[in-house]
Design goal:
mainly alpha; 4 helices
Length: about 150
């Protein structure tokens, strides 16, 4: 009888230790999620600022159109280049938004896991989140292809 109660005590201690460990992992994952969320919000603000800056430059050009007759071609070329750079920056921020979104979904799934996490399980959740059949595939295939081209 005492050996059976000793085994139950060992199981209870093991279960409590596992729950404490899982709680610590949940706290860490929650902190990572909060950081990702804050970074994603800041990136969105920066993207909006880039768009607002370009629109301001465009409105300034249109407002001064009659006064800049001698340098219209230079002004148009400058605004066109600024527009191209703004477009590339906005696309860059959008790509990071997609990546952060996938990371946040993966972290949410990891936080909902009741059992201890393994690296293989984390990788499986990441791959499931970034499944090419879900519509994100074009971005991920493009990114993988760019990485292959850079490496090779």
């Amino acid at each position: 009888m005492s050996s059976q109660s000793g085994e139950q005590l060992d199981r209870t201690k093991t279960r409590e230790a596992a729950q404490r460990k899982l709680g610590a992992i949940q706290t860490i994952l929650s902190a990572i999620y909060d950081e990702l969320h804050d970074h994603d919000r800041e990136a969105g603000k920066k993207r909006d600022q880039v768009i607002a800056f370009y629109l301001l430059v465009l409105v300034a050009l249109l407002g001064a159109w009659e006064k800049i007759t001698p340098i219209r071609s230079i002004a148009l070329a400058t605004v066109w280049i600024a527009g191209l750079i703004s477009f590339l920056i906005v696309i860059h921020y959008r790509a990071w938004h997609v990546t952060h979104g996938a990371a946040m979904v993966t972290l949410q799934r990891l936080m909902l896991e009741p059992e201890p996490l393994t690296l293989d399980h984390c990788r499986e959740l990441w791959d499931r989140t970034n499944d090419t059949k879900l519509g994100w595939g074009v971005f991920w295939r493009f990114s993988a292809r760019c990485a292959e081209l850079r490496a090779g």
